[in-house]
Amino acid sequence: MTVQHITICSECQGRGTIIDKPCGECGGSGRVERDETIEVTIPAGAEEGTVLRMKGQGLSSRHAGAAPGDLLVAVYTAPDPRFERRGADLWHTARLEIPDAVLGTSLDVPTLEGRATVKIPQGTQADSVLRLRGKGLPNSRGSGSGSLFVRLEIALPKQLSAEERKLYERLRTLARK
What we know:
By secondary structure, the protein is α+β, with helices and mostly antiparallel strands. The protein has a domain at about 85-175: Sandwich (HSP40/DNAj peptide-binding domain), CATH 2.60.260.20. The protein has helices at about 100-105, 160-175, and strands at about 50-55, 70-75, 85, 90-95, 105-110, 115-120, 130, 150-155. A hairpin with a 2-residue loop joins strand 3 and strand 4 (about 90-95). The mean pLDDT is about 85.
């Protein structure tokens, strides 16, 4: 029985030529590893996990004269404590004191450009959501921007002063009439 085993030549690595005096830097491979800084432009509103292809910026081929490959860059964003991201929309939670929820007020909320004032209508309930159109992230799949949604929480006092207690008891009496 005859067995044939084919392997790549350890001398030329399958190139078909042997270099008598190989370069000291590359050892005859024709490739030198070095660090390089590449500037990447991330499109506005790019979503988490978006992959950008940088043509010709990847590793070079093992074969002499072949073009380098593409570099793939995955986009991951740092969290912003002010917002939760859902696509191009942003969500923010704001706390309201009971009198502000009952009587209505104006509230300053953060946006990507600074702050915006929103009107809180009287009788606002806990977990109500207000929408600020166009105050989210740019839409990565088209034109326009997402919205900023503001979820309202009602802050209940944990401790009351004697005067506050009397006022709440008076309100309870009025509400039961």
